[in-house]
Amino acid sequence: MRRLAPPALMLAVALLAQTEERAPIASRPPIEIRGRISKVMLGFPRGAPSLEITSEQRTWRVWLGSMRYLVENDFNPRAGQRVVITGFRPSEDSDELWAATITLQDLRRTLRLRDEMGRPLWRQAGVGRKLGPARRGRAAGKFF
Length: 144
Prior knowledge:
Strand content: 25-35%
Order of helices and strands: HEEEHEEE
Distance between the termini: 41 Å
Low-confidence stretches: 127-144
CATH class of the domain at 24-119: Mainly Beta
């Protein structure tokens, strides 16, 4: 009779087999920009929330990512706030940036949106999520 491997061993092997792969947007090294928020856009035209940042050199369009992740982390940027953003540019001459971290300097508040490999944190299990019955659309104490 053949014995099956314990589930913990199978999980360890699966985790070790995964390779660290950069997200496509992180093919270039991250850059840091400093400036002021001139406009907050909530998802149109591309569906993801973004900011228009005015710095000394240029105006940037900064893509934030998941609206759900921003709301769960109580992150509400406003026009006029000073920011420091680290992110990834799709090309050297682009005025767009995919934010990895954003710091609201006036509030001394930083939110991580992506890891060092450019992978979105809102897609990683348990990161930044408030779990529980009410979060899953159920009232507290109700399980059906």
